[in-house]
Amino acid sequence: MARAATTSDVFNAIAEPQRREILALLRAGERPVTELAQELGMTQPRASKHLRVLREVGLVRDRKAGKQRLYGLDARGLRPVHDWAGGFERFWNESFDRLDSYVQDLKQTRQEE
Fold it and tell me: Model-level pTM?
């Protein structure tokens, strides 16, 4: 089975840890590539490459501000990830319900002792 191109699939794009770090930094607001590169300890060309991939899958938008280009998060692009992960919500809710029931049973047993 052929692997989807990184630039067309949000899952592949966020599989790279430094791209996830960039998205996390952009949650706080727009930043120029120089700040992102410095914060992450990488070269500007490398940061630009990651930003290009994130922009192509719709996770990052950019705009010119004077001589700078500012990059910002477009969280709407994470919708496919949210939809996929949300399918596991029932699993986790059931697990937490069983854990809660177990803890309540332990408390009651200790009170009766």
Answer: 0.76
